[in-house]
Amino acid sequence: MTILTRRAAAGLLLAAAGGLAAPRALAQAYPSRPVRIIVPFPPGQANDIFCRLLADRASEGRFRANRVVTENRPGASGVIGMQAVARAAPDGYTLGFGSLASLAINPAVMRNIPYNAERDFQPIARVFEAPLVLLVPKDGPRDVAALVRRIRAGGANYGSSGPGSTQHMGTELFLQEIGAEATHVPYRGSGPVLMDLVAGSLGFVMESTAAALPLVRDGALRALAVTLAARHPQLPGVPTLEEAAGLPGFTVLGSGGIVAPAGTPAPVVEILAETFLEAMREPALRARFEEQATAPLAEGPDGFAAFLRKEQAKWREVARRGSIAID
After folding, report:
1. What are the angstrom distances between the C-alpha of 289 and each of 35, 38, 81, 164, 282?
2. Residue 125 confidence (pLDDT)
3. Which pTM does this prediction carry?
4. Residue 11 reports pLDDT greater than 60
5. Which residue ranges make up each domain of the chain?
6. Where is the signal peptide (predicted)?
7. pLDDT tens per residue, range 300-320
8. Which of 22, 71, 140, 198 fits a 20 to 30 Å CA distance from 2?
């Protein structure tokens, strides 16, 4: 039996007290300088807009003295920016605005991705989600059944905002579910692909609600379905793919939120989550997201982590079934 002297016992108690005090002290001192969020996309892209709105609102609360700033690091479908986040010090001062593409799709389709999406990031807060809309030219097929017949007849093509994008992979999932093939024509961004769809150079496209709605409302494009489990409130007359094509549970979402480097101390994670979730509960901020046909969310670390695990498994299977790989 080991017998502790009074001095040794006192030392253990002090050590334990110090261990408990350290996280409290860290939490009290944080933040002591500006917090930076790396956005792995260009200025003006939807994720950039959402991140700036969130950063501005967060800067009005606990972070008022030091503020939250954004830094764009675009390139390689979001890989360059997310790699910078993964390699940053896990101290709460460098965060990332991670999208579904960068955290779930890229790891499923890229052969040499320089980060591990499952191990290199600590989810903080998921702040938005939005479906895709299945679109055709204004004089194209009048419903999904007619589009499916045209695709199955052969020779159809579709566009996307780039290889490995949510739009690309969402369309591949649709094609797998209907048992058909079509030629993929990748573009650099949503604007050019939608203009070519309007011109009739493409057969169909799956695009974000934010990008698609203005053209649908103007009558330049026809919306055939949304990739949600329920109809979109801003497109109440457009059916879901489950309704229109008999595809039970067919859901494809653009989504994103704040992540930190793995190993960020738990007290800092808690502060960050509280800050961003509080911001996302503000009616004025939620309204700004809704203006972009996007659903605002206030989902914490555990929920965000569970969402990512599910999506990572889903897109790995889509990539495997379609033999989709990007070098």
Report:
1. 22, 20, 23, 25, 11
2. 98
3. 0.86
4. no
5. 31-129+254-322, 131-245
6. 1-27
7. 999 999 999 999 999 999 999
8. 22
